[in-house]
Specification:
about 200 residues, alpha+beta, Jelly Rolls, about 25% strand
């Protein structure tokens, strides 16, 4: 795995043993190499979910499909705390093979990957800025997403995210996974072909 994703065997070992947390870029590479979705990597926060009216603990094995189980409340959602001050908080009731729907927070100074190591992955993403400012680099272009603004991203275009300014950047991320039934011979949309470059009018 270390060879395949371009990191040291020692780092993979430390991640496996839980002594260090990976960066966003490393986590994406590991999930892609293992053929799993990011949802498979989420761990429970340990919070006990209770019935809103009575406060009785919910028995998931007894009511696996109850509407109460489907509601995701603050403080009860599963999350991942990554290296460098990045947090992913899952908004779906459980793993979803089709989409990653989550709140992503970048603390001041936090970034998804170093400036010279952009990441890419299959699928399409949608980002809506909730608070703070999110820096986005797409290949050679840089931009800032401010509260109330949104953007659509092709995950195959090399990219990185970071917090802009002195306050945390909090955004809603929705990443649609590449259709498993899609032909494996499909050519990625990056880099653009010569015909695509000439059709920007």
């Amino acid at each position: 795995m270390a060879r395949a994703i371009g990191v040291s065997p020692g780092l993979v070992s430390q991640i496996e043993r839980g002594t260090v947390t990976p960066s966003v870029g490393t986590l994406y590479k590991m999930a892609s190499h293992l053929g799993i979705v990011l949802d498979d990597l989420f761990v429970s926060t340990g919070a006990l979910k209770r019935e809103p009216q009575t406060g009785t603990p919910i028995q998931h094995d007894i009511h696996p499909q109850s509407s109460v189980d489907l509601i995701q409340r603050p403080g009860e959602r599963d999350l991942i705390k990554l290296a460098g001050g990045v947090t992913w908080e899952r908004l779906t009731a459980g793993p979803d093979k089709d989409v990653d729907f989550m709140i992503v927070v970048y603390e001041p100074g936090a970034e998804s990957c170093p400036k010279d190591a952009l990441t890419s992955h299959p699928g399409k993403g949608y980002v809506y800025a909730l608070s703070g400012c999110l820096g986005i680099r797409l290949a050679f272009d840089e931009m800032v997403l401010r509260p109330g603004e949104s953007i659509t991203l092709d995950g195959q275009i090399p990219h990185r995210f970071w917090a802009v300014g002195n306050e945390p950047s909090k955004s809603l991320f929705c990443v649609i996974h590449q259709n498993a039934e899609e032909s494996p011979s499909r050519k990625p949309s990056w880099p653009p072909s010569a015909s695509q470059k000439g059709s920007s009018k």
